[in-house]
Write the structure tokens for this entry.
Amino acid sequence: MAPYDDDIPAELRGLTTRMDPVPAHLVALAKESLAWRDTDAALAELVGQLDLAAVRGEDLPDLFTFTAGDLTIEVEVAVSGLTAALTGQLVPPQPARIRVDHADGPTWVEADALGRFAAACITRGHLRLCCYPAGDGGPVQTSWTLI
């Protein structure tokens, strides 16, 4: 058995950085994604997804339902080309500020006293919603969802 060579780990580390460096734009996106996280937010679980276009054979919106504790977030996503329009409802109804995180950065919208909200021109791809209720409830954040 050959003695352990201390230079091998250093050579292997150097090989990965010289031969296959991480593209700069991916490093920047990874750093930006850390700024989007809210460690105090409860994670809302995707409990329902319905693709109405597959059911009826037309270009109809997708429906998503997320829950966290007593709060349910229902979202309808209507896709048009490279963008989408979101229409949503908070259950139980309540006013809130909602941040939609997507490829072009965050978009802020307001939910009215009935819990209704809408966001237009959302870039297609992965998105998530971060809900900040006006009452005593803490923030709620959905998982990333592909639209």
In short: The chain has a mean pLDDT of 82. DSSP finds three helices and ten strands in the chain. The longest strand covers residues 42-51.
